[in-house]
């Protein structure tokens, strides 16, 4: 890895603005046997001074992250299941009404989105390199190809199935450093009047909410309407719509079409103007963000140490990928957190990456409520707090650290 990587989109100069230091792979939950083999990388982000794309300074090889052991499943949140069934139904009513339509999803994971499409009898294909989750999709009747999507995959899909009326990707495009190959593939695979729709964490919202833990190995890019509009144009595509989404701490759903095929929504200019006002690409805003992040770290560590010294029981809720950044950057380990509870079977019984906190089923949280619960899955706060009312009723308190540290 060179000392000064260039922008993966345009070759421009990257200006680094935050460095979280040495970090493990965020979804590599370890066992006592694999612990000595844990690998680390430097987690830092920079902004391209030419095209404004925010990206990681160091890349983790894709096979190390996405393979048959990949533990994340989309179905783990009720809100996300409903979110994906809603967008699937919208596609069925709008874009997938022609003669024998076809939809391709990149990062289709356990098939949560495509299940609705398959049930409607519409041709679908998921593409996902993580075979464990892809098998879960197939078990639900969703066609799934175990592969990394790139130009050659698009050629194969095109030869086997024809053009796609919709190409969809949720929380996946931002995971792919090699966008050049991906966009060439999309340009080939997309039908003349088709749409490429993707949704990912919104960088303006990361700055607004101080949600620094959106930054981890798998999130290579941090998109804005401006950077996506520029990216699309490089490949003969055009950004034609943007839609703010409340999920995962604030995302944007971008709709792209072949250049000139659809009329761009005025929402795009409005969102870009808002981004400019916020200063998403300005040195001042980015430096201020980095300073606020250090304050959160200091406040959180101080609070957890105080609680420990007072003899309080503190557990964490949600073994999220995001929490790897928090725990490792702040140095939060089993001395401060008794365990992390999580509903994902593939994470339970293991230790959190780098920080080595045991992951236990949520039943253990219910069996004996702690005094405090650090909400690592803060992006699912509403859903979790609603179903865990018993914890508060027992006198328990939630600790949140986004946008700042507080006890609720
Ligand atoms: N779309 C789901 C899953 C997001 S997790 C949701 O929003 O809940 C990201 C997924 O992208 C993982 O399942 C991972 O295996 C997959 N992925 C990573 N690189 C990919 C690539 N190049 N092509 C297709 N999928 C990829
Ligand atoms: P995410 O933030 O990447 O969606 O990950 C959320 C994690 O939190 C995932 O491991 C599942 C877990 N989780 C629970 O344990 N209980 C819940 O109610 C929810 C919504 C998530
Ligand atoms: Zn660039």
Salient structural properties:
alpha/beta; 34% helix; binds S-adenosyl-L-homocysteine; globular; six-stranded mixed beta sheet; 408 residues; seven-stranded mixed beta sheet; binds zinc ion
What this model shows, in words?
Helices cover 34% and strands 22% of the residues. A seven-stranded mixed β-sheet has the order 6-5-4-7-8-11-10. The chain has a six-stranded mixed β-sheet with strand order 14-13-12-15-16-17. Strands 1-2-3-9 form a four-stranded antiparallel β-sheet, covered by helices on one side. Helix 5 packs parallel to helix 6. The protein has helices at 62-65, 78-93, 114-119, 131-139, 151-161, 179-189, 203-209, 225-233, 267-278, 283-309, 322-330, 362-367, 381-387, 389-393, and strands at 14-24, 40-48, 54-56, 102-106, 123-127, 144-145, 164-170, 190-201, 221-222, 237-245, 251-258, 314-317, 340-341, 359-360, 372-375, 397-400, 406-407. It is globular. The structure holds S-adenosyl-L-homocysteine, thymidine-5'-phosphate (TMP) and zinc ion.
């Amino acid at each position: 890895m060179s000392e000064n990587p260039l922008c993966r989109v345009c070759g421009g100069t990257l200006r680094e603005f935050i460095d979280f230091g040495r970090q493990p792979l965020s979804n590599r939950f370890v066992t006592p046997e694999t612990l000595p083999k844990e690998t680390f990388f430097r987690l830092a982000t920079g902004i391209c001074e030419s095209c404004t794309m925010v990206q990681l300074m160091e890349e983790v090889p894709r096979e190390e992250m996405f393979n048959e052991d990949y533990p994340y499943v989309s179905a783990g949140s009720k809100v996300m299941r409903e979110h994906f069934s809603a967008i699937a139904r919208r596609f069925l009513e709008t874009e997938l009404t022609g003669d024998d339509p076809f939809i391709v999803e990149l990062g289709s994971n356990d098939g949560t989105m495509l299940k609705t499409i398959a049930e409607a009898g519409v041709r679908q294909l998921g593409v996902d390199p993580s075979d464990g989750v892809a098998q879960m999709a197939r078990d639900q009747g969703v066609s799934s190809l175990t592969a990394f999507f790139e130009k050659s995959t698009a050629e194969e899909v095109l030869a086997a199935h024809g053009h796609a009326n919709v190409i969809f990707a949720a929380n996946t495009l931002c995971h792919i450093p090699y966008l050049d190959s991906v966009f060439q593939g999309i340009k080939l695979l997309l039908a003349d009047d088709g749409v490429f729709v993707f949704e990912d964490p919104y960088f303006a919202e990361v700055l607004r909410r101080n949600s620094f833990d959106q930054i981890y190995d798998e999130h290579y890019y941090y998109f804005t309407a401006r950077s996506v509009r520029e990216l699309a144009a490089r490949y003969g595509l055009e950004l034609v719509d943007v839609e703010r989404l409340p999920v995962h701490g604030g995302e944007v759903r971008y709709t792209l079409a072949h250049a000139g095929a659809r009329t761009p929504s005025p929402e795009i200019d409005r969102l870009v103007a808002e981004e400019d006002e916020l200063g998403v690409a300005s040195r001042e805003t980015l430096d201020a963000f980095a300073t606020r992040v250090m304050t959160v770290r200091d406040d959180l560590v101080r609070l957890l140490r105080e609680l420990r010294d007072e003899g309080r029981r503190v557990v964490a809720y949600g073994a999220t990928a995001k929490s790897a950044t928090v725990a490792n950057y702040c140095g939060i380990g089993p001395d401060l957190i008794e365990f992390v509870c999580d509903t994902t079977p593939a994470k339970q019984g293991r230790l959190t990456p780098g920080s080595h906190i045991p992951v236990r089923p949520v039943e253990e949280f219910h069996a004996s409520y702690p005094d405090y619960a650090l909400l690592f899955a803060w992006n699912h706060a509403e859903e979790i707090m609603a179903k865990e009312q018993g914890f508060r009723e027992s006198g328990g308190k939630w600790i949140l650290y986004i946008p700042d540290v507080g006890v609720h």
